[in-house]
């Protein structure tokens, strides 16, 4: 039987889990090494590489702009995405399928191509500064998540509840804010978290849209790795893993245990 | 609500995508058909170059091998996870989710440490006297495949666990009582039920691996370019924007073809399940 006592399944399962966790564990260990290049197993123990993160302006600035862009892009995506989803799910719009395809179309374009196209059009042709271009790029990344998650929760919400409020004299906007919004808040929080994480971690779009004056954290690490191989990156990786862990805890607190394991992450 | 107002809610999102995604895409597509001798000159030139064909071939091979390995490793792992107790299953799902949410640079960086000339793996093999000189593992196609598998395996597992949770173990028990061996159960009962999920996972992994930038950049180096790293190199290192656009267009077309094929096949599978 292929139940949980099946030795083959168990063996493969344990090996795969170990292979998923061990590489990250090695990164954690190397961040404490005293040698100037990364070595494993480490000799000695130091926290100096953690202090070194803060001496790299590219990392500090990059963290700030990655955080700002991720927050703003996620909020903007909700701000323009939720009304669009509401219109598509509540009104009889003849071109519904057309709009759905349009809203999800950014997922069909490889991110690296989005980055390149935005660089050519926004930065080169329209001479837009890098910062707004980055925000637009990350907004395109986020919007499909909002559309997908909020649409499915709007379809589960009984429209009659809202209609009952209208007949009792509530205005449309008030009904939306007091009845619809509280009912779909789980999907809104989930969409926000997914947008935030994906924007914060994004590389292909940021790659074309950053420059000496405008760093993003992931691309700053990528640049640093071109010329350096010291444990600073290990230390920074540990900080980012802690950041991920905090976000996961937050998701669990806000959305419940089930949300963590069922949320579609791609 | 008035008709105009309904569209008002749609306009910001629709306009945003048209102006900032579709228009720029057309902008980079136009020079690829206007600057050559004839509309498709640049494309035929690209497809006749041995070097460029090699890049396309490498991109597709890496994506294919990655997809196959993630299915082979992901399926047994997903089955194993789905057969644990609820609390244990939740713990394992969190372990799987953690790498997905961790930055791709961090995850690839881990493999630089492992695969490098003085890396963990070479040191270990030398300590065990299995090899006398360090092997070249980093900056190879294999390294890109390893990195891609590491990147996408959790996504495959998550997709498959959802489907494996829905399997009815009683059917397998019935088959076992009737004398079916585990492998027969896997082939005749589990695989047909999980086929749609395997295809969904394959779509996610293949399109992800085919268009990924970070992994080939960090683990492949400059001598093992794939299409996404070629786009960046042409555009930013060589300043040849038209060539970069040609590669971008070929990448979009190829990924749409592959996605279309896999979706078409999924549709056929769904119909088969409906008829059954």
TrEMBL record, chain A:
Coiled-coil intervals: none
Cellular location(s): Cell inner membrane; Cell membrane
Domain ABC transmembrane type-1, residue spans: 63-251
Coarse class of the protein's main subcellular location: membrane
Cellular component, GO, one term: plasma membrane
SUPFAM superfamilies named in the record: MetI-like
InterPro entries registered for this protein in UniProt: MetI-like, MetI-like_sf
GO BP annotation list: transmembrane transport
Entries under PROSITE patterns matching the protein: ABC_TM1
Transmembrane regions listed in the UniProt entry: 12-33, 67-89, 101-122, 128-147, 188-209, 229-250
Membrane topology according to the record: Multi-pass membrane protein
Keywords per UniProt: Cell inner membrane, Cell membrane, Membrane, Transmembrane, Transmembrane helix, Transport
Family (UniProt): Belongs to the binding-protein-dependent transport system permease family.
Name under which the protein is recorded: ABC transmembrane type-1 domain-containing protein
From TrEMBL, chain B:
Location of the ABC transmembrane type-1 domain: 56-262
Gene Ontology CC entries for this record: plasma membrane
Keyword annotations of the record: Cell membrane, Membrane, Transmembrane, Transmembrane helix, Transport
Cellular location(s): Cell membrane
Gene3D superfamilies on file: MetI-like
SUPFAM superfamilies per UniProt: MetI-like (SSF161098)
Family: Belongs to the binding-protein-dependent transport system permease family. CysTW subfamily.
Protein name (Swiss-Prot/TrEMBL): ABC transmembrane type-1 domain-containing protein
Organism of origin: Schleiferilactobacillus harbinensis DSM 16991
């Amino acid at each position: 039987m292929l139940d949980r006592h099946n030795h083959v399944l168990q063996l493969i399962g344990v090996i795969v889990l170990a292979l998923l966790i061990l590489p990250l564990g090695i990164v954690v260990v190397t961040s404490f090494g005293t040698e100037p290049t990364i070595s494993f197993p480490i000799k000695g123990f130091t926290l100096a590489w953690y202090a070194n993160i803060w001496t790299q302006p590219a990392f500090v600035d990059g963290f700030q702009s990655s955080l700002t862009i991720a927050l703003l892009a996620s909020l903007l995506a909700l701000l323009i995405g939720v009304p669009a989803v509401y219109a598509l799910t509540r009104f009889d719009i003849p071109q519904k399928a057309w709009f759905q395809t349009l809203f999800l179309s950014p997922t069909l374009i490889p991110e690296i191509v989005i980055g390149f196209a935005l660089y050519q059009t926004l930065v080169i042709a329209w001479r837009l500064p890098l910062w707004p271009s980055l925000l637009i790029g990350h907004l395109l990344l986020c919007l499909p998540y909002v559309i997908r998650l909020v649409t499915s929760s709007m379809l589960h919400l009984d429209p009659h509840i809202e209609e009952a409020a209208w007949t009792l004299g509530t205005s449309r906007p008030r009904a939306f804010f007091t009845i619809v919004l509280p009912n779909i808040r789980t999907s809104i929080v989930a969409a926000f978290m997914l947008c935030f994480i994906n924007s914060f971690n994004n590389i292909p779009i940021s790659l074309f849209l950053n420059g000496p004056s405008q760093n993003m954290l992931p691309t700053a690490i990528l640049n640093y790795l071109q010329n350096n191989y010291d444990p600073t990156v290990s230390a920074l990786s540990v900080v980012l893993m802690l950041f991920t862990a905090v976000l996961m805890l937050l998701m669990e607190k806000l959305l419940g245990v089930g949300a963590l394991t069922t949320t579609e992450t791609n | 609500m008035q008709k105009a107002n309904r569209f008002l809610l749609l306009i910001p999102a629709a306009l945003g995508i048209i102006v900032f995604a579709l228009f720029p895409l057309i902008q980079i597509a136009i020079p690829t058909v206007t600057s050559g001798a004839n509309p498709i000159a640049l494309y035929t030139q690209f497809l006749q170059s041995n070097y460029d064909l090699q890049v396309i071939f490498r991109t597709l091979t890496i994506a294919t091998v990655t997809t196959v390995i993630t299915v082979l490793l992901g399926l047994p792992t997903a089955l194993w996870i789905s057969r644990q107790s609820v609390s244990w299953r939740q713990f394992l799902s969190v372990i799987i989710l953690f790498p997905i949410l961790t930055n791709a640079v961090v995850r690839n960086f881990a493999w630089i440490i492992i695969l490098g000339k003085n890396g963990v793996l070479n040191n270990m093999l030398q300590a065990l006297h299995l090899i006398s000189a360090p092997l070249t593992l980093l900056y190879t196609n294999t390294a890109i495949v390893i990195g891609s598998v590491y990147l996408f395996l959790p996504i495959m597992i998550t997709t498959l666990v959802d489907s494996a949770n829905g399997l009815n173990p009683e059917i397998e028990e019935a088959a076992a009582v009737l004398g079916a061996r585990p492998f027969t159960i896997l082939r005749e009962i589990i695989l047909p039920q999980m086929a749609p999920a395997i295809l969904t996972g394959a779509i996610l992994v293949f399109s992800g691996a085919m268009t990924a930038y970070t992994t080939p950049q960090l683990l492949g180096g400059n001598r093992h370019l794939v299409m996404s790293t070629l786009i960046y190199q042409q555009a930013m290192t060589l300043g040849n924007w038209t060539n970069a656009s040609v590669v971008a267009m070929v990448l979009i077309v190829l990924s749409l073809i592959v996605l279309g094929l896999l979706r078409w096949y999924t549709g056929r599978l769904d119909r088969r399940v409906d008829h059954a």
